[in-house]
UniProtKB/TrEMBL annotation:
The keyword Transmembrane helix applies. Keywords: ATP-binding, Membrane, Nucleotide-binding, Transmembrane, Transmembrane helix. Residues 46-329 form the ABC transmembrane type-1 domain. Pfam families: ABC_membrane, ABC_tran. It comes from the Bacteria. This is ATP-binding cassette domain-containing protein. It comes from Niastella soli. It is found in: Cell membrane. Coiled coil: none annotated.
Length: 609
C-alpha cells in the first residue's frame, strides 16, 4: 500500500538550513511582516508606546540628577527646588511609564497573535494543499513543528524582538547623546572600551547560534520519536518494545542535553563576559568621575546620572548581542516556513464548489500505456506500460503479488501522482483536462487502514458530504450495514470514536468509511483491500455493504482475497508493474500456467488447510 508518510530510509533529511545574516535572508524575513499589514496601526501604536516608555525610562536618571543636586545645594544652604517636588514629578513619570508599558505589551500581543494565527493558517493551508510526494518525503513531526515551534519563534521575533531592538536603539542613541552632554571626557573613556566588547560579543554570539541550532535539531529529533511512537502505540506494545523506544528516546534526549549544556557553557561565558564588561566599565567611569567631581567639572547628581545612563547603554549593547543570536534563530525558522510557503501546491480548490456540468463524469476510465516511478525513487520503475480500460459502472479487480503496484494504480487514479509516460483518461478526456478537485469530488477511496477523525461517528460519516442531513446520514449508514451497531451505542451517532477511531473495531471502522463513501455518492470508487483484515462473518457484512456501495459506479477493487472479486467484470493481474493477464474469472481460470490460476490455487490450498 502506498502510504502517504512513508519514509525512504528512516533518516531525517538535513533540511534545516543554516541561517546566515545575509541581505537575501533578511529580505525573506521582512516578507513575514506582510502578515502584520492588517494590524499595522495597532502595531505602529505599539511602536509608539515603546518609544514613549523608553523616553520615560531615560527621563529617570535626569530627575535623579536633579534630586541629588538639589539635596546637595540645599545642604550647602543654596536655593533649589525641593526634593519632595522632584520626587513628586518622578512619581508622575512613573505613572506614565506604567500606562505606556501596559499599552505596548497589549498592542504588540494583539497584533502579534493575530498575525501569527494568519501565518499559521496560511502555512497549514499550503501544507494541506501540497502534493502527496511532499508528505512522502517528510515526517509528520517535522511538519507539525514548522507550524508550532518555528512560527512561535517568528512571533517572538515580531513582537518581543522588534520591541527590544527598538527600545535598545532608543536607549543607545538617547543615552549616548545624554552622556556626551553630561561629560564628554567621561563619555570618551567609556567609548574607548566599547569596540572591544562589541567584537567579542559578536564572536560569542556566532558560536552560540551554531550550538543552539544543533540543540534545536536534536530536540526536534527526540520529539519526532515521541510522535511516532504515540501514533504507532499498538505496534510498540504488541512488540513489547517499550524498552527499545525508551532507550531510543533517552539516547536522543541525552544527545540533546549534552548539546544544550555545551551551549549553556558558552552562554554562561557570554553572560559573565558581558557582566564583567558592564561593571568593569562602571568602576572605571566612577573612579574617573570622582576625580572630575573633585575638579568641579561634573556635579554629584551628574555623575550618578552618567553612571545610570552608562548602565542603560551597556545593557542595551549586551542585549543587542543576544538579540543578534535570536535574530539568527528567527531567520532559520523563517527560512523553513518560507520554504513551505514558496513550494508549489497541487491545483486543488479550497472552496466547496459543486461539480460543474461540463466536468461531470460517466465513469469510463482508461490507463493508456502508463509508466510510473515515485518521484522520491525515480530509478525504480513501479508501473511499466500498464493499460486498463473500465466502462462506466464496471467493476475492475486488480490482483497480483505484494509490491506489484496495485496501490500505486489507486494513487494514480486519485491523481496523487502523475504518470511519467502514457495517459490516464476519464470519459476519454485526459485526466489533467479536468480540474483536480472536480475530479476527486467524483471519486471515493475506501482505504486499507481506515483513518477516522477524533470526533463523533456522525462527524466521521458526514466527512463524505459536509452538511448532509441526519436522514441522509442514517440512510448511508443503513446501506453500509452500520446503522445497527451505531444505534446500539448509548450515544448513537454522537458516539465519540476516540483518536483515530480506536474505540471501534476494524469492521466497524470500515463500515463507517463505507457509509462515508456512500454519502459522497461517487462516480468512481477505489477500494483498497477493504475486507482483508476481517473474519468471515464481518467480511460478509462488509462485503454486502461494499456491494451496495459499488452498485452503478465504476469500481476499482484492489484485492488479496480472490474469492471476493469473482464476479468482477474484469480482473487485471499485475506482476512487477506489468499487466500480465486480464479477463473475467472464468477466462483467467481457463489460462493454464496463468498467474491468476496459480494464485487462486494457492489461496484455495491455504484456506482449506
Ligand atoms: N511513496 C512511495 N515512494 C517510493 N516508493 C513507493 C512508494 N509507495 C510505494 N512504493 C513502492 O512501489 C512498489 C509498489 O507498491 P504498491 O503499494 O503499489 O504495491 P501493492 O501491489 O499495492 O502491494 P501490497 O499488496 O503489498 O499492498 C513497492 O515496491 C513499494 O515499495
Amino acid at each position: 500500500m502506498a502510504r502517504g508518510n512513508r519514509q525512504d530510509n528512516g533518516v531525517r533529511k538535513p533540511d534545516m538550513p543554516k541561517a546566515k545574516l545575509t541581505k537575501e535572508n533578511l529580505k525573506e524575513a521582512i516578507l513575514i511582516f506582510s502578515y502584520l499589514k492588517p494590524y499595522r496601526w495597532t502595531f505602529v501604536s505599539g511602536l509608539l508606546f515603546i518609544a514613549l516608555s523608553s523616553g520615560t525610562t531615560m527621563a529617570f536618571p535626569f530627575f535623579l540628577k536633579k534630586l541629588i543636586d538639589s539635596a546637595h545645594s540645599l545642604s550647602l544652604g543654596k536655593d533649589a527646588v525641593s526634593p519632595g517636588t522632584i520626587a513628586f514629578w518622578m512619581l508622575g513619570i512613573l505613572s506614565l511609564q506604567m500606562i505606556f508599558s501596559f499599552m505596548r505589551v497589549y498592542l504588540f500581543t494583539y497584533a502579534g497573535e493575530h498575525a501569527l494565527a494568519d501565518m499559521r493558517k496560511e502555512v497549514y493551508r499550503k501544507m494541506i494543499m501540497m502534493p502527496m510526494n511532499f508528505f512522502a518525503q517528510r515526517r509528520v513531526g517535522e511538519l507539525s513543528s514548522r507550524i508550532s515551534a518555528d512560527l512561535s519563534q517568528i512571533q517572538d521575533a515580531v513582537t518581543g524582538m522588534l520591541a527590544e531592538i527598538l527600545r535598545g536603539l532608543l536607549t543607545l542613541i538617547i543615552g549616548m547623546v545624554l552622556i556626551f552632554v553630561l561629560s564628554p571626557k567621561l563619555a570618551g573613556l567609556m567609548l574607548s572600551v566599547l569596540p572591544v566588547i562589541v567584537v567579542v560579543g559578536v564572536l560569542f554570539g556566532k558560536r552560540i547560534r551554531k550550538l543552539s541550532r544543533n540543540t534545536q535539531d536534536q530536540l526536534a529529533d527526540s520529539n519526532t520519536i515521541v510522535q511516532e511512537t504515540l501514533q504507532g502505540i499498538s505496534n510498540v506494545k504488541s512488540f513489547t518494545n517499550e524498552w527499545y523506544e525508551i532507550g531510543r528516546y533517552t539516547r536522543s534526549l541525552q544527545d540533546a542535553v549534552k548539546m544544550a549544556i555545551n551551549n549553556g557553557r558558552f552562554r554562561g561565558l557570554f553572560v559573565s563576559f558581558i557582566l564583567m564588561s558592564i561593571f568593569g566599565t562602571i568602576i572605571l567611569v566612577v573612579w574617573y568621575g570622582t576625580t572630575l567631581v573633585q575638579h568641579g567639572t561634573i556635579t554629584f547628581g551628574g555623575l550618578t546620572a552618567f553612571v545610570v545612563y552608562t548602565a542603560f547603554v551597556g545593557g542595551s549593547m549586551a542585549g543587542f548581542a543576544d538579540l543578534y543570536s535570536q535574530l539568527q534563530k528567527t531567520l532559520g525558522a523563517t527560512q523553513r516556513v518560507r520554504e513551505i510557503l514558496k513550494d508549489e501546491t497541487e491545483p486543488v480548490t479550497i472552496v466547496d464548489e459543486p461539480v460543474e456540468e461540463k466536468n461531470k463524469l460517466q465513469g469510463a476510465v482508461t490507463f493508456h500505456h502508463v509508466a510510473f516511478s515515485y518521484p522520491s525513487r525515480k530509478e525504480v520503475h513501479i508501473l511499466k506500460d500498464v493499460s486498463i480500460t473500465a466502462a462506466p459502472g464496471e467493476q475492475i479487480a486488480i490482483v497480483g503479488p505484494s509490491g506489484a503496484g496495485k496501490s500505486t494504480i489507486a494513487a494514480l487514479l486519485l491523481r496523487f501522482y502523475q504518470p511519467d509516460e502514457g495517459q490516464l483518461l476519464f470519459d476519454g478526456k485526459p485526466a489533467d483536462s479536468i480540474p483536480l478537485s472536480q475530479l476527486r469530488k467524483q471519486m471515493a477511496l475506501v482505504p486499507q487502514d481506515v483513518m477516522l477523525f477524533g470526533g463523533t461517528i456522525k462527524e466521521n460519516i458526514t466527512y463524505g458530504k459536509p452538511g448532509a442531513t441526519q436522514a441522509e446520514i442514517e440512510d448511508a449508514a443503513r446501506k453500509a450495514n452500520a446503522h445497527d451497531f451505531i444505534t446500539s451505542f448509548p450515544e448513537g451517532y454522537e458516539t465519540i470514536v476516540g483518536e483515530r477511531g480506536i474505540k471501534l473495531s476494524g469492521g466497524q471502522r470500515q463500515r463507517i468509511a463505507i457509509a462515508r463513501a456512500i454519502l459522497k455518492d461517487p462516480v468512481i470508487l477505489v477500494l483498497d483491500e477493504a475486507t482483508s483484515s476481517l473474519d468471515s462473518a464481518s467480511e460478509s457484512i462488509v462485503q454486502e455493504a461494499l456491494d451496495n456501495l459499488m452498485k452503478n459506479r465504476t469500481s476499482f477493487v484492489i484485492a488479496h482475497r480472490l474469492s471476493t472479486i469473482r464476479n468482477a467484470d474484469k480482473i487485471v493481474v499485475l506482476d512487477q508493474g506489468h499487466v500480465v493477464e486480464s479477463g473475467t474469472h472464468q477466462q483467467l481460470l481457463a489460462q493454464e500456467d496463468g498467474l491468476y490460476k496459480s494464485l487462486t490455487k494457492l489461496q484455495l490450498e491455504f484456506t482449506s488447510e
